[in-house]
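Students often ask why we bother encoding 3D structure as a string. The short answer is that it lets us treat folding as translation between two languages. Here is a chain of 1434 residues written in the first language.
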Amino acid sequence: MATFNSSFGTSILFYLNGKRVTVESPDLDLTLLQYLRSIGLTGTKLGCGEGGCGACTVMVSRYDAIEASIIHTSVNACLCPLYTVDGKHVITVEGLGTTSNPHPVQERIALLHGSQCGFCTPGFVMSLYTLLRNKPNPTEREIEECFDGNLCRCTGYRPILDAAKTFADQAWKRGTVVNPDDGSVKAAGDASEKEGCGIDGCCRLQKKKSDEGQFAVHDPVVPFTATNGANGCCGGGKANGTCCRSSSEDSLTVVEEAPCSKANGACCKSSSTDNLAEIEKAEVISQFQVYDPTQELIFPPFLIRYTKGKTTEDEPQMQPLEIVAKNPKTSWCQRFYRPLTLPGLLAILKKHPDAKLVAGNSEVGVEIKLKRSKFATQVYVNDIPELRQIAEHPDRVSFGANITLAHFEHTLHQLISKHGRQRTQSLAAMRDNLRYFAGNQIRNVATIAGNIATASPISDLNPVFMAAGASVTLVSQDGSKRVVPMCDFFLGYRRTAMQPGEVLLDISVPFNPPGECVRAFKQAKRKDDDIAIVTCGLRVRVNIETRKVEDAAFAYGGMAPTTVLAKGAIAAALGGTWGDRLLLDRILGACQEEMRLDFTVPGGMAEYRTALTTSFLFKFWAITCSELQIACGESEFAAEMLKDDEDRVLSKGQQEYASVADRAIVGKGVQHLSALKQVTGEARYIDDMPAVHGELFMALVMSERAHAKLLGIDCTEALATDGVHRVLTSHDVPGENKWNIFHDEEILPVDEVHYVGQPIALVLAESQKLAQDAARLVKVEYDDLPSILGVREAAHKGAWFDEVRQLQNGDVDTAFQEADHVFEGESYCGPQEHFYLETMGSITVPKGEGGEFDVYASTQNPTEAQMVCAEVLGVSASRIVCHVKRMGGGFGGKESRSVLISAFTTLGAYHTNKSVRLILDRDEDMQISGQRHPFYGQWKVGVSRTGQLLALRARIFSNGGFSHDLSIGVLERAVSHIDNCYRIPNTDIVGRVCRTNTQSNTAFRSFGGCQGMILLESMLCEVADKLHVPVEQLRETNMYKVGDVTPFSQPLDSDWNVPLMWAQMKEKGSFAERRAQVDAFNAQSRYRKRGLSLLPTKFGISFGVKHLNQGMALVHVYMDGSVLVAHGGTEMGQGLHTKMAMVAAETLDLPLDSIFISETATNTAANTSPTAASASSDLNGYAVYNACKELADRLRPYRESMAGEPFKKIAKVAYLDRCNLTCAGHYKVPDIGFNWQKNEGLLYFYFTQGVALAEVELDTLTGAHTTRRVDIIMDVGKSLNKAIDVGQIEGAFAQGQGWATTEEFLYFPKNGRLFTQGPGNYKIPSAMDIPRDFRVTLLEGVDTSMLKTIFSSKGIGEPPLFLGSSVFFALRDAVLAARKHAPGLAAGQELPTLHLEAPATPEILRLACEDELVEMARIPSALKEGRVPFTIRI
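And here it is in the second language, the structure alphabet:
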């Protein structure tokens, strides 16, 4: 029997980037992320705080004594308590390299355009780095899958994947292996056979190996250019300048026996076309550092001895830990233990039987962060070897409860390979399920025991364990053991059969006998890194000779408060004949009956979840019948059912644009100028700024009511807390308490709150945690008022703001009378969260004199931040300077709503005379910041028999939230984009903004344009269905031609290129052939359907408010020849500063590296327009050009008289000659201005246009889909930077794809609270959601003479976003194919019109497929009437 050991240590020892660190009595509240950032290692970012985005990824290495090897793991530092890294080596992005000497991972991501805003980039760097430390020769699949726990909102992932894949099968990299004993890396096999690309004499290995190591340092190879492109993959380094893969010394012919990686067998760097994209990429790749795994930081040998317990007497010893919280009242854990043995653990539990056991902290960490959970005692159990044993027995395998899921997955692979597929059916099902279990960072730390003991009702693994007949071994405080079958383990919601003080020792999984089949299925909103909606483990044992069912187990998660067996379905199966259709019907019916959910069930999606249970069973039936070679009607569908389980097609991309002949710098694919800073963690964001002495942290007191009178705010308890300095309310606002364009929103509410999450008061304290804890102590008294959440409800009740926007043309009523067809309907599209990886934040620093303040903000609108802060304080704007270095994404979300955050910090700094910092947590940001406006439209359309659109009457409503914000501007763009690319001669379009009790919705990339267009395109799809014509035909029939006039009275000039791109796409994308292929596939496939969509877009460029269409710049030429540029635009990842530097360099005829842009600030760029509307390059670019042109003219005489002299010398001479080397530039867009009352004037300066062709494949039984291929042709004029523009296209497309498919924004209808408050519930696309084949082409060779923009370029940030909805419309096409099998549909019978609303989540798509299983799951209308669902769309 174990006894309590009082010999505990209180300090932890670990290595950080190669240096030993000791921390005495670490703060139990401190995560690894917080520790790293507190000591200045700010490269590791906080993105969500719940392990869902990967921005905080670091590598943690440990010595595994059982495996006797070094284990490198990527870990979410935000969920990793600091005390868990004892005995480990932590490597952060700073430990890899610097801008002057980057690691190859950092270099390649930077130079291949894989970093835009850069906030997520360190996480991607560390995930890839960890993979390379474990597998120096990864496959492309391993590379793609290593990012399944990382999210990016900017790039669309394609350039990140491209950069990462340069480490797979490199032509110039020898094979290497990891030594498991010490973690070192060495060459694999005979070096003479493994050098270079495998061809003797490879030019990359011409130099002999150095004496210092196995890898030589190579001279830079000849850059790949258009003239030497034939020189091949190595840059033509052979003696005669040919490729090392050439067949002979005097030939450029590529050897067929050793092809390069191009699909057509040509050399990977040869180019038969003038595709600058490939040329630039090849130039960059040819100059990459050689990746040398032997030069990585080694795992410290001391830590091996430390972990083994074999350190010397004078060295620190690894020992059990006991740490007491420094602040027991506020700490989430009062006492912490870390035992090293099982007896030690049992002894602790004897003293603390209710202690919380923690291993990976992936569940507890989220509970602490989001639920504010507290635990008196916590015990960390991950360093106990007895809990990580794996043992094989004749009839089963026992897995130690504390092996990580990553280790579990690896072991399952080994066991399946060793014992064969039949014996390991259950193990294979578990392995398949683990493939989509969370992300790598979670699987690396989460354990089997954690998954089981938390008893989550949506656990991925528990249903499989239960179905497999597994059992758990529990050990008690006295060392006695008992075995509990999994079917008896779960007692209720989050309750198990474990008694206080018991420990889960292991779980045993039986081997499978002949005739037994096991499968696992899971459905989530997103395929990768997502929690399950429904998950299951299904097992059946069939007598091979008689086909009689001898045993079965059907276990489900997501259908009850805990994992459950479908006992009725099991009973129906036992004794039946497997393969008999009557048995299938009985099983499905029994399953449906007992798994049916109530309409108001927690979690919602009642019909969908019920349908999934039978859909999974049906899949299982078909697969097992095929596997058991039982001939039946369903077995022929097995290949379809298995397709999702097979290896997913690897993604690939292709970019195409022409060379630039007329410019030295502008137009070239220059990398983002901050990219190397971002990949190395050196780029500074708001929360990376060092704290000023005495700085205070701010937290928000947020409304808990959707609409209520404020009766009182009691701050007494908060103010009594040590370290709390002030609590500010509306009474503390010295100046104006109202803001935004319409001045209808209070800085802090006086007597009424309008949405859940609205800031009511501001708490100032000495730490962020202290401020947040104190904010929860503030007591607010409410008197509830009626509330409205949804746009439909608001529209029907007439709850809207006064403003109306209307476009009327022709005679709509007469046109309806003359039309051959008149159709009516409605359309809807949902909101979207910006999900910039850097949440909103601001720091205000008082200057200490004259009422001056410096505001450092993550904002797209520094001028408004300056003005509002001044108004709030009642001072002049000249006393406030707003600084913006860069943002970690913005997308419109930081155009106006960010201003409120700066107002808060400035108010705090005013009252305390101290620097004040406010960085929102992800859930706070999502509750208060505003989203894309949901839109609801009612339409009536008249059409001729030939498909001509004759008239449109539309009433469109947006959900503006509780205040105006920018909603009128969003509405104007929606109304003016509802025509998209089509001529409708008679229109009556009226738009209103609805007032609801949600946060004030705001600007978001596309700013109403995509909403207007998707409403119309949804209408066109329904019209095409009714006319029995392809919707592409309807689009083409009505497409604008040059000279046509839009509903806002703007004629289309020769810059109208959509018809040209449409024709090019049909040919380039092989539309006709692929349409035939899709139709043929659908005719042969019953439960998987493909869809195709060809979609155009036009997007008007200009601000809707006339005075915003101006830009300014200030340019200094210093006497050393360097140039500093300041302009009115802000950098949020879109490459604006890079483009402006290129404009300056081009205009001044200087090299790009002589131009520097430091920041955007209101004291150097005054009265700026927000960086928005895709107009910032136009406005600020021309302002920079005008300033630089003036400077160039001033310097021309000196350059002419000093021809051949360096510019540094010329600048010095000009200065000495008293030449003014500073110039301000200004630009205003000519002719712009529109009168909405008269429908006259120029609304948009020009249109950016594009066409997309999307192909998808839909699993009709689950609603899951894959985007197989997307082709885009985009008209960007003469691009300022073609590579950056391609990146904007890809990133915008992915964002639009998410808006239209996975990104569902939901509220609790009963209290108005936001349900989707973070990555756990809100799903932006992951790297595996982007098109498997993604091709982007920039339109070339068209007349740009009509463009009066800077260098004839076009704005590009927003226009491509709507093209992402081509995936939505392709899915609609696939659903139409599925509905041809609708039950009861007779041959030739007309299908009901399909009404599909965005986002088309798996739930929406599955229920739209209308098959027998869906019909079984339907809840009768009578059972829904008058009842409130769990969540709603707004």
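Translate back mentally: The longest strand covers residues 1088-1101. Keep this in mind for the problem set.
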